[in-house]
Amino acid sequence: MNSTVRMDTVGSVLVVTIDRPRARNAVNAEVAEGIAAAVDLLESEPGLRVGVLTGAGGTFCAGMDLKAAARGEQMTVSGRGFAGLTEARAAKPLIAAVEGYALGGGFELALACDLVVAAEGARFALPEVKRGLIAGGGGVVRLPKRIPYHLAMELLLTGRTVTAERARELGVVNHLTPDGQALHTALELAEEIAANAPLALAAVKRVVQLADGIPESEAFVVQAAENGALLRSADFAEEIRAFAEKRAPEWRGQ
């Protein structure tokens, strides 16, 4: 049992909650292992379609637990990166539900997700340069790919904290909610996604991730292969039957 990371199932959605509110949900070794285990559960359980990552007590995550780091704890998981997530290759969609602070590694956890829902009072920052470091959990790598280069560099070079509204203006946040409603809105979004074909959802993620580092012509080859496999799938055949019978398809992920 991991007391610092809770896993709750809501229909076909796995809600993963970092539960160290007294430490502002900072990541220690136990949190990293717990998040990695949660991703494993999400990926291995066919009935789970989408994951939602959030934090307890009105804070998303304040980043690395510096006291734990001073004790020699490892906040990375082999092959998974910081907090067991920032370098993981999850096939299923992940949504960050952000309340309060998403600082340093906390912001990087949000960037590791596919969508971000944030409460109006949320705050985002990558302040590592103020401590003589860089945002090594994916911030330096991912932020310039998500928003215009000059705007990303401003946040990375100043370490400035921005509001949720500004993060939405930049394109980091998908949906802005009243305080206390980020998880509720993230679950609504997760349910909308989970209603779609699971093989197609996974294919979308694979193509988007692969296309990021290869020429466009090669990306179209990858896309064609993925779409060809989907056309041959049992789920696509089920969609054809369901359309003809005027009913919702019953996806099996096959």
TrEMBL record:
Supply the alphabetized keyword list.
Answer: Lipid metabolism, Lyase
Record-linked Pfam families: ECH_1
* Organism domain of life: Bacteria
Tell whether Nucleotide-binding is among the UniProt keywords: no
Family designation: Belongs to the enoyl-CoA hydratase/isomerase family.
Q: Return the PANTHER family for the record.
A: (7AS)-7A-METHYL-1,5-DIOXO-2,3,5,6,7,7A-HEXAHYDRO-1H-INDENE-CARBOXYL-COA HYDROLASE (PTHR11941:SF169), ENOYL-COA HYDRATASE-RELATED (PTHR11941)
NCBIfam families, alphabetically?
Answer: PRK08252.1 (NF006100)
Protein name, entry field? Crotonase/enoyl-CoA hydratase family protein
Please name the source species: Streptomyces orinoci
What lineage is on file? Bacteria, Bacillati, Actinomycetota, Actinomycetes, Kitasatosporales
